[in-house]
Amino acid sequence: QVALGDANVEISDLRGQLQDREKEAAIGASLEFGEDLYWKRTADHGLDGPYCPTCWDNDRKLIHLKFVAEGEFGVHEGRRRRYDCVLHKTEYFVPVGIFGPPRTIR
Questions:
Q1: What are phi and psi of 11, to 5 degrees?
Q2: Alpha-carbon span 44 to 21, nearest angstrom
Q3: DSSP label at 10?
Q4: Share of the chain above pLDDT 90, in %
Q5: Given this model, what pLDDT does residue 85 score?
Q6: DSSP 3-state assignment of 103?
Q7: Is the C or the N end of the chain the one with fewer CB within 10 Å?
Q8: pTM of structure
Q9: Is the pLDDT of residue 43 over 90?
């Protein structure tokens, strides 16, 4: 009986892992990579984002980047939007007008 209980726990754990992988695969299938960032395709065919490439590539966590500012940023040509990953303290610069208006994440 103990062995049967252990087997049921293991089956339950494996089912949970399978569901997590299926969910991760569905998210991955909806992502597009552009301007060195991830963007999620929405049901109405728009783009949501941007999302941190380091968070997704390393940890499979879909983390929105925080919009910081729009303007001219020295080494980058033209107007850009600056987004930061609050976890990795990384800055990303996206050309204005490519992916619509910025989202403000608080």
A1: -60, -45
A2: 25
A3: H
A4: 41
A5: 96
A6: coil
A7: C
A8: 0.74
A9: no
Average pLDDT over residues 25-46: 87
Q: Is 37 in contact with 90 (CB distance < 8 Å)?
A: no
Which comes out higher in pLDDT, residue 101 or 37?
Answer: 37
Residue position matching structure tokens 């997704």: 56
Rounded Cα distance, 84 and 54, in Å? 12
Other residues' Cβ atoms within 10 Å of the Cβ of residue 18: 10
Distance CA 18, CA 12 (A): 10
- C-alpha distances (whole Å) from 24 to each of 17, 19, 30, 35, 56 are 10, 9, 10, 22, 10
Least confident of 5-9, 64-68, 78-82, 101-105: 101-105
The SS3 call for residue 92 is strand
